[in-house]
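Box 3.1. Reading complex inputs
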Amino acid sequence: MVTEAPLLEVRALKVVYGSGRKKRVAIDDVSVTVVAGQTLGLVGESGSGKSTLANAILGLVPVERGEIRLAGQDISHASFEQRRPFYRQLQAVFQDPYSSLNPVRTVGQTLAEPLWALGERNRGVIGDRVRAMLASVGLPPEAEHQYPRQFSGGQRQRVAIARALMPSPRLVICDEATSALDMSIQAGVLNLLQDLQASRRLSFLFISHDLEVVRHLCDWVVVLYGGQVMEQGPTATVFDAPAHPYTRALQLASPVADPRLQRDRRRQAENSTRAGGPRVHVGKSCPFAPRCPYAQTRCWDERPLLRTSDGPGQVACHRFPEWRSEPEEGPVPVHSRVSTATASAAYQPQAFLDARSMA
Amino acid sequence: MMLRLVARRLVLAVPLLFVVSTSTFLLVALIPGNIARTIVGAQATEQQYLSLRNSLGLELPLYTRYWHWLERALHGNLGVSLFSQQSVTSMLDSRLAPTLSLVIGATAVSALVGVALGLVGALRPGAIDWLVDVTALVGLAVPSFFLGLVLVSWTAVSLRVLPAIGYVPMGTSLSGWLKSLVLPVLTLSAGGIAVVAKQTRDAMRDVLERPFIRTLRASGLSSRSIVLKHALRCAAIPIVTVIGLVFIGVLSGAVVVESVFAFPGLGSLAVQATSESDLPLIQGIVIYFTIFVIAVNLCVDIVYGLLDPRVRAA
Amino acid sequence: MTSIINPLAERQPVPLARPSFSRHLLRRPVALCAVAFLGVLVVVSVAAPLLAPYNPQSQDLTRVLTGPTGHNLLGTDTLGRDVLSRLIYGGRRSLLSIAEGLGVVLLLGVPLGLVAGYVGGWTDRLLSRLGELVMAIPAIILILVVLAVVPHNEDIAMLAFGLLGAPTIMRVVRGATLAVREEQYIKAARVSGLTHLRIVTRHVLPRVQGPVIVQASLFAAYALLFETGIAYLGLTGNAASATWGGMVAEASTVIEQQSWLLYPPGAIIALTILALGLLGSAVRDAAVMDEGGAALRTVPHTPRARTPATMGRCPDGDAPALLSVVDLEVTLSRHGGATPVVDGVSFAVRAGETVGLVGESGCGKSVTALAVLRLLPRGMQVSGGRVLWEGTDLLGLRGRDFDRLRGTAFGYVSQEPLASLDPTFTIGSQLAEVLRHHDDASRRAAKVRALELLRLVELPEPKHVASSRSYELSGGMAQRVAIALALAGRPRLLVADEPTTALDVTVQAEILALLRRLQAETGMSVLLITHNWGVVADICDRALVMYAGQVVESSPVELMFDEPLHPYTSGLMNSHPAQARGRPRLATIGGNPPSLGDWPQGCRFAPRCPYSAAKCRAGDIPPDSSRTGRMSRCVRVDEISLGGHGDRSALA
């Protein structure tokens, strides 16, 4: 691993939304570190807080508690003016290729803007850098004078990436940057990200719900659930031998493109979560407890803290590593087969195979 | 839950009335120009001018005047007309019936014809749709006073079918009342029909494109029930909103239309009061109009609550 | 930098001629007329002293109340004054008044709207409340108060009118600002380091100008209506001055003798208001076109010559099919032309099997499914082919006969679970309504069955769900409800259009498991549209791959994964990140899919295909069903060996 000082350090971050009765904790005591040259993956489902974390780091939402340090400087409560110099080093690419570019400005104008914002006014310099960047992301030079609507989704994301790279940042946050793209297009964009990383010595904080993409691209992964870190570690270790039941459930839930293998995994997948109650953050418990097949009393009463798992990784689970040796079946899911069988009795196979005439 | 909605609306209405009345009072007091001089005219003697100033209480400081006015208003006394010397409230009350007949009639016609036209336009694009567009444009473009006069010129003068001017109270003769309302209501409704038809058509078209309509169609429900039961209910909210706005528009339009047809209503009284600078009367009319607007907004909110459960819960 | 990617470089985007906004506007004849009319009006008003034939005040008592004559083109009024000249001067007054009102409205409304929309919070609430307050009172009454205090002062009256009209513009600007503020490019601009002020001026304002122009022209129309109204009432102007409203008032006094006098002023007022209104809607339409998608290239649709091999045969084996689609063709009508969207699609679904329609965006998979269900959106229609349900041609059925099949023969589940339920009714009542329609059951029986259905889809607390509404449910729960709704009529085929795309991964797994279980227990077939190969592997028995409106391959799933029969299929599979295990780069398919209707001659995939040869572009590629149960549209399929998910030899 690289031994430079960390590029980005998030310590014990807490972000809340709303106030009074509608207060909701989006991120609860999350710590993440990105080192120079690293690609850190952040996975989670909706409500896990992954996008909020990106927004907090970028200064787009206020931080209630904790620290965000960029290249050693604390920017957690920095005002916009104080942050501006940091935007040279920290940029972002967002998810929606259709809303991330202003439709009434040309690609050239959009790419020029970050330079303009940083004080560059020399048109010649700006123009040269725009053209150079277009070439780096695989777009033709004519694109400079064209409008976003003339491009496909994948090409627009390339423009968005180009825009992010204009101020020559050291860290780029990709918030579901390829999730809205078709798979074959996504492959091209992912390749581009890797090429750019090598040629410009970039670090990425790559947020995604797609485990396979994260596995391919990232060397370190953080798994979020309910605003808390469930597990983190080297990607291969975390996915091959998950230390947290949620990671395992997440993995098993993603179907693989192999029918035979998928059939075998299905059974395991069905037992990896309990059809539980609402995913409510109770505060003093493990957020995954309502759905965890291995949860015990302690999991409901006490929030687990991060501790070392396998190798350099960490896990927040009371029952690690014992849960791994529990039988695969696990406890019977809340909705047993019995109850559904009576319900479907009303819909006998016979009724369906009746030749319903259509006349 | 509905009661809470109504109560909340009424509670909000009080400050509105208060603000409106205060604003008109302040407006009158602060506008540059010498009111007493205006009323009394250029030819008046100094004595007439001074006695008028006295009777208007213009020497007293603003807040004293306001306080007196407010005190009386809260007791239902809106003062006395400068010119007719009658109580403002009694003058206004006597003119309520014609204006209300006109305004409610025009709103009802606009709503019924407009919704029907809009529904047809939404469901059968083509010729009818084009008709909706044309109606919308023409109905809004032709000024009401012009339309009214044209109608009068054709029907009353040339054909002598309907009365050109005047109002027959309902009590006197039902057919007379109706006949006297036909032309004014038609004139006032033109714009209203246009607006309601366009909004209905646009809202229905928008709702019919939504995903849940496709799901309902896929379930096999009949088109009629989908349109009338589901789509209309969803489209109803913007339609009701616009009907509320039409009422307010018709209220404003009544000021002009009543003059065209010499209708003895609040509108023509307002014009008369303005040209005579009869301030207490004008202020009284403002209060009455504001009460109408509040009543309409309340009805619209109640209908919202009935239609959209999210509003009730909020 | 060595790249494994396809030697074909990234295609250049097709540069479409982009007419500027104003050219869009002027293309429409209506807008052109309106602009011309207003232009002429302004010019004539400004040049009134030069153009008016007579002095508007000069009376000629010998020519009183004449109609149009050679001497006075529009006749004379009660004092013999020339109507045309009075109209011209009246226009001056009216235009000035409109300008006064408009000026106040824009100077006040636009900045306040920007602030309210952009800053939000209590500033927004305060401004909105104030605006509501002002809008609550009919403007005309307040202006009457003003006129009572400063009689006959039209300028102050119009300024006051502008003041009262500002909240409307403020609200429109606020709405447009709110919409823009949510766009991700605003976020990106922040992250680029732009200050709020710069963001507002560079990004928000240009997007807001469209609605502002529309509202401004509407306001100008109202201002004119208002100005002529108070002139008619005699509250402004005086006996001598010429105003349009005053002229109408004058005409009304002699309506019995000379009705002509009414028409010139009335007509000009109406025409001006009309022009302003038309200008507003034309601007709105032009703005929509400007920002909207690229104009579709419309190809005049010629029915393709069909070789006998492509006609009539159900290509997927010989077992009796429940649903059989033969040579389906769907076109999109736009701008007077027809663009083909789906072309020559044939497949079959047998009882009890799950067939997947796989492809990327724009390939036509959703459109195919909607065409079968006769649920195509406006503008799209089936222009060829047959859809057979147990032998009967569905497309030939009358509407009412087809409706009987809906819900009972086939059900439909869409991609957006929350949007597919009516938010104004409870879940229970929607289910009951459909149940009553299908089964003709009593209300109580329908209620009971509704709960049974909810339990069937594994919803916890069915009673609670039945009394909830769509927006109270999570995505996964709503999708279960949608499935219950689709099953209400006990259909034999369920058409599911990307049913899990919008859901979280764990929820997706649950829904797929549910579908599998339902299928096993009820024996129904499923036609599943998806772009996710994992879903195909999980639940489908057979799959069809679509590209550019055609089916390029059809196979049982296991065979397809082991040995795809089309370079596109293998390219897609290989570009999946899981396929790159151990390798640093992903395989990609070079280039871009062709835009709608702009399909190349011959094989549509040839421009991007690493194996394309001359014969690939020769002519239409017929489907090759020589392998049992499989179909391929690759003429080179026997010559090349395509890697499946386990094989990497396809990567050049």
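In summary: Chain B has two domains: 21-91, 96-264.
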